[in-house]
């Protein structure tokens, strides 16, 4: 097996930090000296409500290096449903201890909370809502991870019966006034959370947020404003079928009403993103998601009428 030095390994970790945009406040020297932050590590508790766990998968599959290599230098993960070895009563015991302690921690909530049908989502023998409310009350700050947590997303699409609340709605309904960061995306982009956590760990503050609690650094502009088809849009050069070149607005592109940084910070190590791959943006980071437009049926005329 190829041996690499500690410095070379840390350079890889720093490559990931650069990709998240956090290099603006975290230097390579900071990373080299990360041991001095051991006592100040950010405590992190992560809960899953109604969700598919896709945001966790996205987060843990961050390209470049294992995300834990970044996190473990600056954060202390007290509980994560997919990472923690604890199961069953151990988990509920850990969470009870956290609530009863005077620990400062950041609460990350993935998924929504089914308040209309509380038993649709259980942890241990209690509905999820009975965990998330006391955990949020005790937390120093909260992070809504992914569109289900921020806007309801798939868990609130037409026909859903569980009466979900988003994290911002739940905090408001329970009169829990906590600093809140919302990171929409289906799934959430891992860079957005790593940046937010590193910002909090290094500066002790959350990044600058917009009125919907989203970091302006990532959500300050629409997909449309930075789209590589923007000139086509202005010149009315529209794609008629999936796979055509040209602006995708007539195929239902939601880039006009969706704020995120996909066009400059794509997925999978910036390999590509929806529009660059020829598919309209389905607005996965917006409050309008999901719409029927995202679900191409086998007889969808936009897809199958093309003659090759
Ligand atoms: S493809 Fe979508 S985001 Fe791009 S210019 Fe057209 S409408 Fe805007
Ligand atoms: S381009 Fe649109 S649908 Fe694709 S990831 Fe970005 S916000 Fe979501």
Please provide a written account of the structure.
This protein has 308 residues and is of the alpha/beta class. It contains 13 helices and nine strands. The strands form three sheets. It has a five-stranded parallel sheet with strand order 2-1-3-7-9, with helices on both faces. Strands 4-8 form a two-stranded antiparallel sheet. Helix 3 (54-60) packs across helix 9 (190-203) and helix 4 (67-74) runs parallel beside helix 9. The longest helix has 15 residues, at 6-20. It binds iron/sulfur cluster (2 copies). The site of one iron/sulfur cluster has 12 residues, from loops.
Strand order of the largest sheet: 2-1-3-7-9
The biggest beta sheet, please?
5 strands, parallel
Mean pLDDT: 88
> Strand tally, please?
9
Principal-axes geometry comes out as globular
Strand content: 5-15%
